Amino acid sequence: MAKLSNADRNRLLARSLFVDANQSYIQIAETLEVSDKTIANYQSKDKALGFDWLTLRASKHIQTTQTTKENMYSMFTGYMMDSLKEIRENEKMTAEIKAQMIVSLGDSFSKMGKVARQEDPEAYKFGIIKITIQKILEALKKELDTSNMEKVLEVIYEIQDEIADVTI
Question: What pTM did the predictor assign?
Answer without folding.
Answer: 0.41
